[in-house]
Each structure stands twice: as structure tokens, then as C-alpha cells.
Design a protein that fits this description.
The protein is elongated, with a radius of gyration of 24 Å. By secondary structure, it is of the alpha/beta class. The protein is built from 14 helices and 19 strands. The chain has an 8-stranded mixed β-sheet with strand order 7-8-10-9-13-17-14-15, with helices on both faces. A 6-stranded mixed β-sheet has the order 1-6-5-2-4-3, sandwiched between helices. The chain has a 3-stranded mixed β-sheet with strand order 11-12-16, covered by helices on one side. It has 2 domains: 145 residues, Leucine Aminopeptidase, subunit E, domain 1, CATH 3.40.220.10; 322 residues, 3-Layer(aba) Sandwich (Aminopeptidase). Bound molecules: ligand BES, manganese (II) ion (MN) and zinc ion. The site of manganese (II) ion has 4 residues, from loops.
Length: 484
């Protein structure tokens, strides 16, 4: 979707929207339109939309009233909702251009950028594989014209647009099916997208990972004909030589469960078991596009988990890069096996000042938190608070879960240093305890279990059903608030 900034005289759009504050109908509204809005109980609530028609000269034009909600601390979220309501309504309406008059609504440039971010994000679709859509199903809306924007809007939009592009890239990666997106093609897609951004990319292949001793990650990958990769993405926008923040993502491009095979019902969802890696890849794009003044390294651990004659078996013992050994009780608890080697690698290679990993790690976190919060597990209160605040600010919410020695004991193994599953209960926590065993002393670390957040069965505030892009806005905001 294109965003153009115009003066009122330059816009010839025949659909024109205005932003309306709660119970504050402008005095200059067409009286028929105002009466219609009143009769329809339009009150200016965030995301409310009223459509009418008015005569302008010789033409009849569509007039849209968009509720922008109260100007409290939820202002940015309300404006995003208003923008999203506009695109949701006109995306496939047949209309190609919608003008929004933002003058007279007492908005700052930042406010308008929030509105546009909501509009842009809600308008994202991935119709690549649909070849038989009827005309009326196709996206028609290509452009939003912003009329009467206050000073600073274009600069604010340049920043917000970088975030939108990161979220969109993550959604694209998450949406692509596993026959298209596998470790090597994930890497290729990222490299192509990063061209000209200043991001520095390094790729570890199986040979190099073998040399590094990544027996846990490679054990997961050995049942697949798709070769594993680690993608390292660096953004050096901060002080030269300053320790980076590290983001690490689980990138299981398809999770069948391996020999501990999953039930067939819903297994297609496991194409998005790379949502953590997708969020990391999208975040790095956003940081680069907006020129973030921080050093950040992103690591994507990319494998496919398949059953096969060469697949690892329940009971196998593997040696991780850290030297610790793992008894693989359940080959479906593969995410932690991928992450542990990625975590050791990033700590040894980059000496980061803190590490945040993101993973669609457990079904149990969905049982706990449904699709409202991702689970947050951490060894550091300051880091937890920073991530939670960033999440609240942008709507990617986090809820902190407990950890401790009693849970840690649950993954002791009789034959190796640990096993890859705990008991029947507390499955998200024992998964986090497993990861913590790979964090070096003194390194602040947080693990975000995003299994409930990556994919939506119904449309939300700024997304349609499907890939949400969860995590990009969270991590971008976290960097902005704590590292720049
Ligand atoms: N990728 C899954 C977790 C998952 C489940 C993500 C549902 C999104 C939706 C993960 O690899 C997995 O299979 N976890 C197991 C762990 C168990 C074997 C200890 C699970 O949650 O059942
Ligand atoms: Mn699994
Ligand atoms: Zn998985």
C-alpha cells in the first residue's frame, strides 16, 4: 500500500475520510451525513466507521467518518485501530484510492504515523498462490492519500514505515509453506530482502556447524533432506566495538515431530514453527531501515524436523556445542535442541550484553495464556521489565512466568546431563529451564514462548487472520527504549 502526502487541492479521491474524536462531531459536517452517523450510533469510538455519501459540486462522493477514540494513554493503539478499520473496509471494495483528511483532528505527526501504521499493517495480504480469485475478491486499494498532515508527519512515517516493512517481511516468511520456505530458501529470501540495507549476513552450513560441535541442532536436522543452516544477521548502528544485543529465533521450517510423530489434525500449522526466526529476520530489517543507533545481532536456527531412516530416535544422546549432553526422550521437543546450540554460538562468538530468544516452543504456553500474551521467562528483572514495557507500548504483550531449581530438576536424565522434556506438567517452564542451562553466568537472558501469537485464526487489531508478525514491533521498541 502506498502512502502519499498531499494538500487538499491535490487530492481527487472520491472516497474521503475524516477522523472523529468521541462525541465531537465537527460543526462543518454535511447535515445529512451527520444525521446518518447519529442514527447509526456512530460516536467516534476507536475503529468505528460510518460511511455515507455527499454531493460535492457535480459529483457524489463517499464520505467516511472514522472514530479515533479518546486521547488517553491508549492513543497510539486507538489511532492504529482507526487506520486498520479504514483498510479492512476498503481493501477489496473496488476503490483504489482513499483520502484521509487529518486536519482539524488535533493530531501530531506521530499520531498520523500511528494511524497509517495501522492502515498499512491491516492491508497486508499474501495472495501469491491464488490464481482463480474473482474480481470482487481481489485487493483494489493501492493508495492512501493523507491530506492536511501536520509538521513532522513524513519523518514520523519514515520511521513507522520501517517497522511496517519488518512486520510484513516476518508475515511473509511465516505464511510461506514448507515446500517453498526451508532453511536454504529462508536464507536466500533474507539475503535478497537485505540487499542495500547495510545489514551484514553470515551463513553457517552443516560442515561448519559440525566443526563447531552443534550435535543438538544437527540431530534434529538429520532426518530431513533439507540441509540445516544458521543465519547470522548483524546491524552495527551503535558505537564501534560496543557489545551487541542478541536476538535468537527458533526456525523449524516444518515440525512433523520427527519419530515422535505428531497427530495429523492441524499439522499444517507447523509450517509456522519458524515464527521466532521470522520475527528476528523482520526485526533486523526494521532496525536497518530506520537506521537504529544500536549494535544488534540476530541468529536464526534453521532446520526441518522430519521422520526418516536417518532421523534421530527417542533415547538418543547428543552432545551440544556447549559440551553438555542431552538425552532426546521426545523428538518433538526439537525447538530447544535447535536453540541451545544457537544460544551457545551467539554467546561465544559475540559476547552479547544480553540475549533474547523467541520460539514457538510449546503447546503448553497456549494452554496457559491462550492467544493474548506470549510467555516471558528470564533470569533478569530489569530485562523482563524492559521487554514487558516495550510489549505493552506496541501491543505485543508478554506475561512473565516462573522459573526455579525445582523445575530445573525435572529435566535431569539418568544417562546424560539432561533430557529434552520434563514431566507431564509445567511443560513451558521445563522448556525454559532447558534453555537456561545454556546461558553463561552473568548474561541477562529472556526466552519468549510465542507459540500462541504467531498465527491468528481470526482478524485482530492490525492483522487479518493468518500470520500476525508478532515480535517485530516488540523487539524494535525494546531496542529503541533501552539500547539507543
Ligand atoms: N512446535 C511445537 C510447539 C507448538 C505447538 C507450537 C502448537 C505451536 C502450536 C514444539 O516443537 C512441540 O512439539 N512441543 C511439544 C513439546 C512436548 C513434546 C514436550 C508440545 O508442546 O507438545
Ligand atoms: Mn515439536
Ligand atoms: Zn516445534
Amino acid at each position: 500500500m502506498q502512502i502519499h502526502f498531499l494538500s487538499p487541492a491535490q487530492s481527487s479521491a472520491t472516497t474521503r475520510a475524516r477522523l472523529i474524536a468521541p462525541d465531537a462531531m465537527p460543526a462543518d459536517l454535511d447535515p445529512v451525513l451527520a444525521a446518518g452517523a447519529k442514527a447509526s450510533r456512530f460516536a467516534g469510538k476507536a475503529g468505528q466507521l460510518f460511511e455515507g455519501f455527499v454531493v460535492r459540486g457535480d459529483a457524489t462522493v463517499r464520505a467516511v467518518l472514522l472514530g479515533m477514540g479518546a486521547s488517553g494513554k491508549e492513543r497510539a493503539a486507538s489511532l492504529e485501530k482507526a487506520g486498520a478499520a479504514l483498510t479492512a473496509k476498503y481493501l477489496t471494495s473496488g476503490e483504489t484510492v482513499v483520502a484521509v483528511d487529518v486536519s482539524g483532528a488535533d493530531l501530531t505527526g506521530e499520531d498520523v504515523a500511528s494511524f497509517l501504521l495501522g492502515a498499512r499493517l491491516r492491508g497486508w495480504r499474501w495472495d501469491t498462490y491464488r490464481t482463480t480469485q474473482k474480481e470482487e475478491q481481489k485487493v483494489s486499494l493501492t493508495t492512501i492519500e493523507v491530506v492536511g498532515a501536520p509538521e513532522g508527519t513524513e519523518a514520523a512515517w519514515a520511521q513507522a514505515s520501517a517497522i511496517a516493512q519488518g512486520v510484513e517481511f516476518t508475515r511473509e516468511l511465516v505464511t510461506e509453506p514448507a515446500n517453498i520456505l526451508y532453511p536454504e530458501s529462508f536464507v536466500a529470501r533474507a539475503q535478497a530482502r537485505y540487499e542495500g540495507t547495510g545489514l551484514v549476513v553470515r551463513v553457517l552450513d552443516v560442515e561448519e556447524m559440525t566443526r563447531l560441535g552443534m550435535g543438538a541442532l544437527l540431530g534434529v536436522a538429520q532426518g530431513s533432506v533439507r540441509s540445516a543452516r544458521i543465519l547470522v544477521i548483524q546491524w552495527n548502528g551503535g558505537e564501534a566495538g560496543a557489545a551487541p544485543v542478541a536476538f535468537v529465533g527458533k526456525g523449524v521450517t516444518f515440525d512433523t515431530g520427527g519419530i515422535s510423530l505428531k497427530q495429523p489434525g492441524g499439522m499444517e500449522d507447523m509450517k509456522w514453527d519458524m515464527g521466532g526466526a521470522g520475527a528476528v529476520a523482520g526485526t533486523m530489517l526494521s532496525l536497518a531501515l530506520r537506521g537504529a543507533k544500536a549494535n544488534v545481532v540476530g541468529i536464526c536456527g534453521l532446520v526441518e524436523n522430519m521422520p526418516d531412516g536417518n532421523a534421530q530416535r527417542p533415547g538418543d544422546v547428543v552432545t551440544s556445542m556447549s559440551g553438555q549432553t542431552i538425552e532426546v526422550i521426545n523428538t518433538d521437543a526439537e525447538g530447544r535442541l535447535v536453540l541451545c546450540d544457537a544460544l551457545t554460538f551467539v554467546q561465544r562468538e559475540f559476547k552479547p550484553r544480553l540475549v533474547v530468544d523467541l520460539a514457538t516452543l510449546t503447546g503448553a504456553i497456549i494452554a496457559s495464556l491462550a492467544h493474548e500474551y506470549a510467555g516471558l521467562f528470564s533470569n533478569d528483572d530489569t530485562l523482563s521489565a524492559g521487554l514487558t514495557a516495550a510489549g505493552n507500548a506496541v501491543g505485543d504483550r508478554l506475561w512473565r512466568m516462573p522459573m526455579g531449581p525445582a523445575y530445573d530438576k525435572m529435566i535431569d536424565s539418568p544417562i546424560a546431563d539432561m533430557k529434552n522434556i520434563g514431566g507431564k506438567f509445567g511443560g513451558s517452564i521445563t522448556a525454559a529451564q532447558f534453555l537456561e542451562r545454556f546461558i553463561e553466568k552473568g548474561t541477562p537472558w529472556a526466552h519468549l514462548d510465542i507459540a500462541g501469537m504467531v498465527w491468528a485464526d481470526k482478524a485482530g487489531a492490525t492483522w487479518d487472520k493468518g500470520a500476525t508478525g508478532y515480535g517485530v514491533r516488540l523487539l524494535d521498541r525494546f531496542i529503541r527504549d533501552t539500547a539507543e
